[in-house]
Design goal:
Blueprint lengths: L1 E2 L2 E4 L4 H9 L3 H9 L2 E9 L2 E8 L10 H9 L4 E3 L20
């Protein structure tokens, strides 16, 4: 399944947000894979963020892992909105308007 949550980052902290995501700790990468994700790409256009995730199941389990708690602590205050992967509509993302091979 592919999900694409849309979030945002405050314009005044874009540089800090990008710096926080430049290096992903191996422990977090392993936890993301163990939670069922096969890929996770983060796109930014201005303050808009799109998290494209290919996963066997919704990544809600990831949010409960200590390594993700540590990541969220490290990036606290940077996103404008946080996507709750455990709530209703968690698999919703922007509508697909086209797809190419």
């Amino acid at each position: 399944m592919r999900v694409a949550p849309h979030t945002g980052v405050r314009p005044d902290v874009i540089s800090a947000y990008e710096a926080a995501h430049r290096e992903v700790p191996e422990e977090l990468t392993a936890a993301i894979r163990a939670a069922g994700a096969t890929s996770w790409t983060l796109h930014r256009s201005g303050p808009d963020l799109l998290h494209v995730q290919d996963c066997a199941r919704l990544p809600a389990a990831l949010e409960r892992l200590p390594v993700d708690v540590a990541r969220r602590s490290r990036t606290a205050g940077l996103p404008d909105a946080v996507h709750d992967c455990s709530g209703p509509g968690a698999d919703a993302g922007p509508p697909v308007v086209g797809e190419r091979p």
